[in-house]
Amino acid sequence: MIDLGIEKMMVIGAVALIVIGPEKLPRVARTVGTLLGKAQRYVSDVKAEVNRSIELEELKKMKDTVETAARDVEGSIRSGANEFDKQWAEATSTASEAHTALAEPPSFPEYKHPRKKWRIKQGATPTWYKARNGIRTKALSGAARVARYRPQKFN
Fold this sequence. Notes:
The protein is mainly α. It is 67% helix and 0% strand. It is found in: Cell membrane; Membrane.
């Protein structure tokens, strides 16, 4: 690669100043800068595309290895399932011969909801005490609370 040091850059600048002239030098420098920027962007785009293609090839290879491993696992599972089916058929045929009548499965009581009033906080204070002292025992919705405590109009 070209080794551009400070001395070489100064020589190039001096030659450009003499050849191009001081009036056109800033415009030429801007043009050269934009062209160098475009070239760098183009090179970085090409590098990124090459990296993407390499990664794509690696992903394809990885996909192929995963697919072959999945096929191997599926084959081993199927062979194991076939062996299991054979053993199950043998076991059930001998068990059905030994037990002609199947016992009825045990019955369990039906699920019953505990009817817990989860919206009302259950405390140690008895409800008769709460009623006597005006402590609420039931939750009210917002609309019900507004209707209950709305001031009465006098006629």
